[in-house]
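Two records follow; treat each independently.
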Amino acid sequence: MRNKKIIRRRALRSINALFKEAERVFNESPERADRYAQIARRISLRCKVRIPRKWKRRYCKKCHKFLRPGVNARVRLRNKKIIITCLECNNRVRIPYYP
C-alpha cells in the first residue's frame, strides 16, 4: 500500500517536471516538447495517476502534441464553454465554465 503511494507521488512529480520542460523548450524544439508530453502521458497511464488539470489542457488527446495557445492551438470562449482547438489535427475540446 505504501509502495503504491510512493510510486504515484514520484510519477506525479515526473509528469509536472516533463510538462514544465516541454513548456520551456517549445520555442526551440516543438518536436521535443511533443515527446515530453507523450512521455508524461505514458507515465500517467502506467502508474494510474491523473494528469493535473493545469497540464491536461495543454496537450491534444487525439494527436498527443503539446499545445501552446496562439501557436498550435486556438482558445475561444463561446456559450459558457472554453473551446480549445488543436491546429495540428483540428480536434476540439469543450470545457464548461461559469462566468
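The next record belongs to a different protein.
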Amino acid sequence: MLEITFLGTGTSQGIPVVGSNHPVCKSIDQKDKRLRSSILIKWKSYNFLIDCGPDFRYQMLRSNCNKLDGVFITHEHSDHVAGIDDLRPFYFNHGDIDIYAHNRVLSNLKNRYNYIFNNDINYPGVPVINPIEIDNNIFNVKGLNITPICVKHNKLQVFGFRLEDFAYITDMKSISDSELSKLYNLNVLVLNCLRLEAHHSHLNLREALDLVKKISPKICYFTHISHHLGFHKEVESNLPENIFLAYDQLTIKVS
C-alpha cells in the first residue's frame, strides 16, 4: 500500500502568480492555490519524496513530515530542486540524505550547490547528501522497486517514476512507445497538464486527455497546473469520471 500526498500541484510560478490579476490567481477556493509540484510517498515505515522545489520547507511543515528515506529528482529545473538546502533538518535529525537522479542532474546539483557537495570547502552546517546515479533501469530502495519512465520536456530528458501500480510523470511533452509500455496496468497515474493552449514543453489538456486514454489507468490525477487551465471546480466538472485535478494536500492510497 502506497500513501501519496500531493505537496504541491502548481507550475513553476505557483498559483497565485506574484503580481497577477488573473481570476484564478484571485480565487478564494483553496484548491486553486498551488505550490510547486512535488509528492510525498509513504510505504511501510518509509517516506520518499519526488522533487524538492522552492516550497519544500513549507510543504514539509504543513504535511508534518519529519523523516525522509530517499529523494527522487525528475530533472534539474528550479521548481523541482531549489529546496535542496532545506534538507538540512532531515540530515541533522536522521543522518545522510540519499538523492536519486540522472547523472546530468547530479552534475547540475553539484555545481549549483557546490558548498554542499564539494568536500574541500568543508562548510559547516550543510547536509550530507549521497548522490546516487540512476539510469533508465529499475532500481530498488528499501525493498521497493522503482521503474524510471524516460520522457521529453521539449528536448530535455526527464524521469517519471513507477512504484508498484502507481506512476508519477511531470514536465512531459512527449514519450516514446517503449516508455509508454511501462505505464500499462496502473491503478493510479499522475500526469502533468499545464493549460488549455498548446505549450512547447508541457502537455495541454487535450494532449493529457489523449494520453490518459492511451494508457488507460483506473484513475488519473492531473498536476503541474497553471492558472491558465482555469478554476479547479469548473475544469474538474468537465473531465471524464475517472480523471481528476490533484490539489495541494490531497492524500490518496494506492493498493
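Discussion point: The mean pLDDT is 97. How would you locate this feature using only the C-alpha cell line?
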